[in-house]
Amino acid sequence: MSVNSFLKNYRNILNYHGYNFYGFKRVIDQILEVDFFDFSRGHKVHTAFIKTPEYTSDQYMHYQPAYTSVVKEMIQLSVAYYTSISYSDKSRFPIFVDLGCGSGKTLLIAEQFPYFKSIFGIEIDKELSNICEQNLQSLSSNNNFCINANVEEKQAINELLHFLDDTDIDDITVFAFNKNSYGQKVLESSLNLLKEKFNNIFYLYQNPVFGQVLLDNGFYEVLSDSKNSTVHKNYKYKIYHYTKSDHSHELHKNK
Predict the structure, then answer these.
(1) pTM of the full predicted structure?
(2) From CA 158, how far away is CA 75, in angstroms rounded?
(3) For the chain, how many structural domains are there in total?
(4) pLDDT tens, 3-42?
(5) Which domain, by its residues, includes 159?
């Protein structure tokens, strides 16, 4: 993307939000939390863009990259929480999965955490999944995959499991990320698929519009952002945990 394109984007932000403190704050956020991610990698990756695909369902949101600092904080906190809880087994196989990964920005961030054994992105839009695959080529690790599939269909999880065919599924801990990429119905369907296959799931939900759906499906809220209620939605998140353990309620209550 050219300098003129970036400047045009900033001008569009100001035209939309106003030439005031809030408008300029949004421009600064765009530079630090979105554009700098590509700048810092010498433009070897392409994540700083917005795409509004023509989906057949209004359940799917347009693509817009998550804020860098927010993704890092969510991963750091969820991993720290998991490794601190009493029933955390260090022999387990932790994987990171972005359910609606777009260009793969969160996968590039998650790869910086040596804790994860494998990293996956699932993206319904073919063009975005192709960009994701190209971005992943900038990584040195070979344990990163982008799957072109629908998060609410079994094909997505089956393809993921195909890459993990030599791993005992009962030993896997899933760290699933969702930047409010879809509506309530798709969210519930995707949760049911995860619960059907995995017995230990952390759900990192940025801009958690439908957080109640997770609570209704046996997840416990364990962490959340510390921002005030009026901060922009891109800074808001909640982290949930699900386990099939019979002592799940007591463990979360005592934490």
Answers:
(1) 0.92
(2) 24
(3) 2
(4) 677 888 899 889 989 999 999 999 999 999 999 999 999 8
(5) 68-254
